[in-house]
Amino acid sequence: MTSITRLPPELISQILSFVNPKDLASVNLTCQYLYHTVCDNSVLFHTLYLRHLDDPGDTELDWIKEVKDMVKLEAVCASTDAEAIRKSYLDLVHHTTTRLLARCTSHEKRARSSVSYRPSRNTHFLRRCFANPIAVEAILCQSSLFERKVPESQNETEPVSPPASELSGSVTSSKSFSPEAKQISAKLHCLHGAMIRPCSRSYRNKICAAALERVYDMRRFTRRNRWGPFLDEGPGPIGIRGNESGQLGPPEDHVDWEMMEAIMVAIWINMKFRKLDREPFVKEIWGVPFSGCWPNSYIPAAPGKRARDHDLRDPYGVAGVWLRFVCFLDYHDFFAYNFPHHSHPGMPRSIPDFNEFAQAGRLIVMKLHVTKITEPGPEDGQALPVVHFEGIARAIDDTTLAAHLEMKGSVRLTRQGEVHWTSVSSYHGEARWRSESIQLGGVQANKVVGTWFDTDYDASGPCGPSAFWKLSDRVPNTDDEHFDADGFFALRDSCINLASGPPDGYDEDPSSDPDSQSESESNSDPE
């Protein structure tokens, strides 16, 4: 039998291309001949990459580095040493994960009508990597959201770290993490996109409360962060009230990923409470790790039907039917939390008894169309134009088609390359609610997540989290100003479970049921 070392190098490379990438290091140690066959063999590493991951279409990549980073990511995520992961490998995980997501292959056809994306080999690989709960917690649970704050005295607050038994002994407090590392962990958690629930319900409730405290705290809604999920970096856009001269310049529009994470947790909890997580149009977007969180992951239900000139020139894919979920508090709870009786600056704000029953929610269908496309302004990212849109919106539980909200807004790139949505909701011509959101994963990715608030930036509120995702493209020659009755009611009846009671496994607590508070809810309902 001929020894492998006697075969031509090309044939040996072909054989080694079927080896698991993590085993190449062992092949290197076999003998000097195989070492030189593997070492610096860019063709071999290119072939290995394409056997396991999507073709990125870039022939200039450093294939050796890409495969080595893939192997490192797999090894880190398989580790049970949570401390080492947190201290040494968070940057590696972040850079490798975001690169793989940016290079995911988009498909041309949906697998099912309820799923607007199709998993690629890159996302299959990432899901396998993030299947280890210890590594998942060490990587995704290190933001300040996991530092539960409670008042200990009149002058200080202390974080409450989860006991080791709560987190299977894998994760300690993130108090020692730098602000940058916390932002990275929160961003990875947002891209992962599925609720992480490996710990006990008592600790999960603490995380839920921490998220609600953040997203409903009016002190976090300022001109400096544009009242959206941005870092508090400076004045608002040049020309607005309080910054008419623009002497300090605009903020950098860096996304506040910890706020984005809190928004997503608040939405997850509310969807779970209302059983919406069981519905295909919600479950496939919010219940699957790395679900469509890469550029151009959206797949039209019927390709080739966007016929209008504006639609064809729109890089963001705005025109079509979108599903939106808006969360809000009973206004009495919102006011009591934001404006407590005491007003002494040295006293800590009392923490309300927030839990998964605290929020109300509304599921809304939006029908949008493009009105104009303009060049980006000096405060925008310059790679893509600004797309302006209008449309209508209606609550999914509306039993008539007699009234609807009017929508208008714009989509643009930030200077950091994120996709930034702004929308205003009006009723009978009067603007009422404004929303600032970021599209997770980039252009035509599957989720847009952000905040809503009073269109006049009222410091007394209300405010809250919201998210929307696309169901289908605009159908040519249809009425953009009205809903099709048959289509609207078919969507409501076949896709959305309107049961609003708690799902199996929730404690029945009538006093905490948002649906029992309908009278007071109407004061803060954003739609």
Mean pLDDT: 79
Number of domains: 2
Broad shape: globular
**Count of helical stretches:** 17
- Our estimate of the beta-strand percent is 15-25%
Tally of strands: 10
Look at the helices and sheets and give the structural class: alpha+beta
Radius of gyration, in angstroms, nearest whole number: 25 Å
Offer a quick outline of the entry.
This protein has 527 residues and is α+β, with helices and mostly antiparallel strands. The protein is built from 17 helices and ten strands.
Offer a few descriptive terms.
527 residues, alpha+beta, 2 domains, eight-stranded antiparallel beta barrel, two-stranded antiparallel sheet, 17 helices, globular, F-box_dom, F-box-like_dom_sf
Task: Give the helices and strands, then pairings.
Blueprint: H1 9-16, H2 24-28, H3 32-38, H4 42-52, H5 63-78, H6 82-88, H7 90-102, H8 121-129, H9 133-140, E1 148-151, E2 157-160, H10 179-192, H11 201-215, H12 257-273, H13 280-286, H14 309-313, E3 320-329, H15 331-338, E4 359-374, E5 386-395, E6 405-413, E7 419-427, E8 430-440, E9 447-454, E10 463-473, H16 485-495, H17 518-521
Antiparallel strand pairs: 1-2, 3-4, 3-10, 4-5, 5-6, 6-7, 7-8, 8-9, 9-10
Helix pairs in contact: 4-5, 5-7, 6-9, 7-10, 10-12, 11-12
